[in-house]
Amino acid sequence: MRVSRSGARDVVGYVLIALPIVLPIASVKANRLASGEAVWLWGLGWKGVLALLAVPAFMSLAALLASSSRKGANPYAILRPLWSLMPAAALVAVSSLTPAAGLAAGARYGLGAGFWLMSAGAVLLSGARRVPLSALLLLAASLALASLSGYARDVSLFMEFESRKAMFFAELSKHLKVALLSAAAAVLPGILLGYWCHASERAGRLVMGFVNLMQVLPTLSLFGLIMLPLTYVSRKIPLLADLGIRGIGFAPAFIALWLYCLLPITVNTMAGFDGVDQTVLFSARAVGMTERQSLMKVQLPLASPVIFSGIRTAVAQNLGNATIAGLVGGGGMGSLIFLGLAQAAPDLVLLGALPVITMALVADAALGQAERMIKVAVLHGDD
Amino acid sequence: MIWVRRSAIAALFILFVFGFKYIEALYGLFVPQRPAIVERTAMYVLVWQHLVIALVPTLAALAVSATAGCLLHVYGSEETKSLAVSLGSIGETFPSVAIIALSVPVLGYGNLPCMLALFVYAVLPILRNTVTGLAEVPRGVTEAAKGMGMDKLQMLFKVELPLAWPVMAAGLRVALIINISAATLGATVGAGGLGIPIVAGIRTYDTLMVMKGTMPVLLMALFADSMFAGADGKRSRNG
Amino acid sequence: MAMISIENLHKSYGSQAALDGFSLEVEEGELMVLIGPSGCGKSTLLKCVNRMVASDSGSIALAGRPVTDYKEELLRRGIGYCIQEVGLFPHLDVYENIAVVPRLLRWPEGRIRERVDRLIAISGLSAGHLRKHPRQLSGGEAQRVGVLRALASDPPVLLMDEPFGAVDPLNRHTLQAEFLKMQKELKKTVVFVTHDVDEAILLADRIALMEKGRLVAVDAPQGLEARLDEAFIGDFLGSEYPLRLLGRYAVKELGLCGNGAEGGPEGDALRLEMEPGMTLKDLLSGLIRAEGDYVLVTTPEGRDIRLSFSDIKCLMKGARR
User: Would you call A279 and C83 a contact, using CB atoms and an 8 Å cutoff?
Assistant: First the structure.
């Protein structure tokens, strides 16, 4: 369509949206563990197809109207985030498969490749250059609404969710707790360490060497290597055990994630300070600032966008790595995933994996937005 | 100097893989009791499995990304290039465990889900570096080549790729090293490789077991890193 | 007592001597231009005054007190400093950039506001510039802000290191003229470094010529003309120095009406309108272009005055007295 300026992205999006034509949108499964029988687009019945086509039809109309209007705000650009309503619409469509008498006991629908790829395409189309926060919020809200209204009742993923609600939320809160707290705890030390590396050449090389080593060390190993010393220490110092710090559980996960967060924050802080223009530094000295004043009034503000970018990387990375905490008893979405793998229940795996991916993407998008705002605030321009 | 480094790494590697019982004996001097572990697979088999799991997807990603990068460079617009790079960077945000776990329903247990995830992860650094490397070839050189009468394809192979190779190699290096260590995650879904002793060590609270798996992985990654250092004539990342 | 006294200053970088026994006295309210070939040490000298660079030996005193008496930061807050790259703080707007030193000195907000307004009024900028950010400014505008920033805390001394060097020639003339006007009103003690002889001629009360870290000559611009026969001076200032010197003398100031004959044959004579900023150099140029050996100048009142070459020489002598 001539309206959009991000042609290639849109082409990919449209192709993905069209995939339900050739890929199954759902499957009917006899029970929790069975693999299902494919359901195609035409099997949805007219109500389902209508639900599915509603959003694309509306958006095409908007696009056509926009291309005919000349000046002023582009209505299509404003309406773009509405594409993210498609997954919820697809859920409604799938629910139309349920016969009036309901499904047989234990039977349920699985969501097919057509559904997932179409959803990916919808999310892609919801933004011209990047997925806007509004689209993600719309997606979450529409899905929540759809499931609360009962449209997802017979979808196996939601049935799994229903039966494990308590566990889901418990693990979700543990996941968020360990990921966000360890990131928060790493900010100040990371910035201090990064500044030290910037100030001292030797320290810089030492720390960079250590950072590289950490990147090479497998995540599993780090978690594992923290466990034993921690168990030993917590046995020797009863106070720690009383505080709940033991060799397994929250503590080793927290420490490992904290260490992983230090990396991007330190590296970015160092790069941020290194990147301050030499002339500006010279000026700061020349007008009579002390070293401290130069640091606080000039260097820190100018380095802050890069530093914040490091924090953003740390948070997104943490939300993903916290999944492994499940292996050391730290809970989190990883518990659901590993449980699902052990039981060979794909829906449980999905129930664990999807939130992790979503959280990482949302955090990345939200913090990316914040980063842009910081850049504008400090440098008064968006590079 | 670099060969001293490599020999040292190789020597340590041989020690850890084939002579682990000496390390165990040393460890036993400090830590008296250890649960008895029955080892089902010999270390060198695990090492081989690990290499396969790590290298195959990386090389596949190299082939795919390099080709895609070249195609984008020759036929693509600025827009398609940035789209490709941003799609790839979404891949980087996805946590590896999630990708591995999600591929299980499709690919089953074992090596394949792990290899798929590693493939996805290797694509981005290589693709991004290919696109950047080709874009950074100085205009003067490409103008001269065009002036000599080369067509787009000849220019690509004779001029641009050789000049862009150091940047691409840097991407390959990052991808390879990350993959060597990330291949350990496969053990959680039944893949082979050095993740097995690590996971076993975690489950039985056996640090030595964890080390048994970790050290060879580290040494392999360091060795791979030093291979690249030699190749492009610069010092290795670790200084 | 001189405002700035520099005595026997030495500074070496390794085996290279940047300053080799440099001595100079700058009087209060004087605009001293420091000029010399690149590498002669003029920038280093400037940086020694505000202790951005530590000299090896020798002394610098401001109003009688050695600069080493003060703490570095406090010294610099009392000296205005302008550099070629300007070095404005990118994260602060124009107002905040100018207000930097007053804030360091803890001036009350009202006083700062007043000061900035006054500075803007005497510069070529408008109040609309105050909220802009460095990246939104042109080269000339940025340098003007740099000068205002240096003047903000009303320091007695101003150090300027080729401030207009990076600006295009047209803008440079404007900046020079503005600065001259400001200096006439503010009467700061200025040490101005440049390698551009024309700039020196235009701005200087006195010119100090440097070579290889030493002072070779210091005098008013017309005083140096007498020493053109000396090897280095002649080489650096160039044989056309007297010609360029003519650019210093504005025609209006010289009381045109006292010289030259009134009226005269027209026709093939070259006519010049007397414009503000017209110098003796322009008159000489007109003479060269003219067919005959005189040029006709029309004053703003409408009178015509004939000027020949000897008239111009006479005007020149009058200006030098």
Answer: yes
User: Is domain A165-379 given the CATH code 1.10.3720.10 in the classification?
Assistant: yes
Structural domain of C45: 4-245
Asked whether residue C171 falls in the same domain as residue C307, the answer is no
Superfamily for the B42-215 domain: MetI-like (1.10.3720.10)
**A194-253 residues touching B, CB cutoff 8 A:** 205, 208-209, 212-213, 215-221, 223-225, 227-229, 231, 247
Total of domains in chain C: 2
Q: Are residues C150 and C287 in the same domain?
A: no
User: Would an 8 Å CB–CB cutoff place A271 in contact with chain B?
Assistant: no
DSSP B151: -
Edge-to-edge strands, sheet with C270-273? C261-262, C304-308, C294-298, C270-273
pLDDT per residue of chain C (321 residues) written in tens, 0 to 9? 678 999 999 999 988 899 999 999 999 999 999 999 988 899 999 999 999 999 999 999 999 899 999 999 999 999 999 999 999 999 999 999 999 999 999 999 999 999 999 999 988 889 999 999 998 999 899 999 999 999 999 999 999 999 999 889 888 989 999 999 999 989 999 999 999 999 999 999 999 999 999 999 999 998 898 898 888 899 999 889 988 998 888 877 666 545 556 665 565 667 777 777 788 888 888 888 887 778 888 777 777 778 888 888 888 877 776
What are φ and ψ of residue C13, in 5° steps? -110, 100
Q: C-alpha distances in angstroms, C136 versus A6, A342, C91?
A: 29, 61, 12
What pTM does this model have?
0.81
Which of C245, C260, C281 is at the close of a domain? C245
Going across the sheet that includes C189-194, the strands are: C79-83, C157-161, C189-194, C31-35, C206-211, C214-219
Residue with tokens 């499904």: A103
Beta bridge partner(s), residue C194? C35
Amino acid identity of B112? Answer: L
One domain for residues C212 and C259? no
Within its chain, how far is the Cα of C24 from the centroid? Answer: 17
Of C89, C101, C136, nearest to A288 by CB-CB distance is: C101
Please identify which residue in the block is written with the tokens 């929790």.
Answer: A32
Q: Which of C73, C76, C84, C97 to mutate to test the interface with A (most CBs of A within 10 A)?
A: C73
- The ipTM is 0.83
Is residue B118 within 8 A of residue B183, CB to CB? The reply is yes
CA–CA separation, B95 and B100 (whole Å): 9
